[in-house]
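Each field is listed here:
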Amino acid sequence: MKETISTRQTAIISALLIFSNKLLVLPSLLYERSKADGFFAILILLALEMLLLFMFLKIKNAYPNLSFYELIKQKLGVVFAKFFFVLLMVYFFFKALLLFNVTFMYLHIQVYLDATYYLFMFAFLFVMTTSALRGLRPLARGAEFVFSFIVASLLFCLFLSFFNFKSFPIFFEQKFGNVLNSSWHTACCCGDVLVLFVIMDKIELRKGLNKKVLIYSGLSCLIVLLVFFMFYSIFGVTSFIHNNALSDIITFSYRFLDLGRLDLVAIIANAFLSFLQLSIYAYMLMVCFKQVFTKITDVYIATFYNLLFTIIMISAAINYVSVIFLAQNVFSLAAPFIHFIVPAILFVCAFKAAKRKEGT
């Protein structure tokens, strides 16, 4: 029997994917490139993410029983399907490296300064691949279990940040071209909605799917925008030096010193969020790997994933600085193709299929 997830679980996963790589270092990177107009850069990226989500829902409704791989093979050929899934393997692996390094640096600063990559790998890497090996349904149930806590924690952080509010950000300092350029160079921090495409055949198509997914994802977009707005309001011209946005908006205040470390709420929420996202990336790599190399089992894929990840981290081939550089200057070039070209082609096919169905 095929492993499937419910409408609510799909909506929750889509909402969590919107948060991916946007609540820590991204506000600082966008400020560095386009000052407070980085708010409009993230607005553009979120609008594109919602557009991608709309394409997914249209395609899912048009081809409810086909997998993403089968659909690409049917419309664009088997060679292109394998090539694109190899790209997705590299893409999700790099996304995992990016999130791993950003989360490590965050927890290293906020929790334990003596922590090393080795300690963090043992705490996260093998647990997340084990979680991925258990399958999509346990991952979805885990997301369902912690979703309310994550959203409540983010709203709590935003509530506290309003007490630190200083002034409205100074918008419209940059040309629109600079804002678009900022969005382009940070596009690798978005596009996680592609996860839903890869698992589309495992999603139950029931009444209310579109509505739930759009509402949950819209709530996530609103929270991200509020975090950006409050971050630029509180830190102004010093925003570029604050790389842990969610914690910093509540940490840098004298009003709550007597209440202890309220940033623990943000730390725990980010830990849950990062663990789920890293597990999803590992699962995506397994799914893509099996489509290209059909005879390899999940255990071998997970072993290969752990070894490659460990070798890269131990050899220092990728670290926090280099992965941020690669995200902005290398993977940003491939991001538009990976995010939109194939989904757009399939969306046109789905639109034509819907028109033919109406005609008959």
